[in-house]
Structure formats: C-alpha cells, structure tokens
Amino acid sequence: MIKKQELLEKNSEKRKKCMVYTRVMGYHRPVESFNIGKKGEHNQRIKFIESKDCI
Q1: Nearest-angstrom CA–CA distance, 29 and 39
Q2: Half-sphere exposure of 35 (CA within 13 A, CB side)
Q3: Which residues 6+ apart lie within 8 Å of 15 measured at CB?
Q4: Cys staple from 31: which of 15, 20, 52, 53, with CB 3.0 to 4.6 Å?
C-alpha cells in the first residue's frame, strides 16, 4: 500500500491549488488572505452538514 505522502509526491504535477472562501461581514473572502488570528478563528469554527430532510 502506498503511503499518503508518497502518493501526493507522485502526483504533484497534477495537483492544483484550491482556494477556500468564507463569508465575513456579509461578503466572501479567501481564507489565505486572513491574518494569523483570523486563520486560527476560522479553524476553530464548527462545521456542519445540513441533512436532506431540512431542504
């Protein structure tokens, strides 16, 4: 079985950077533009998945 790191290195030329956006104060911003404090706050947020019954 190939380890995860080996697999990532093997396919590194095929990978693309993924931009993550979040809603802040009514508009969307890329998380990578956050300062260190805001990044820490973003990592502490509770993420949830809404069930299909609610839709």
Answers
A1: 12
A2: 1
A3: 8
A4: 20
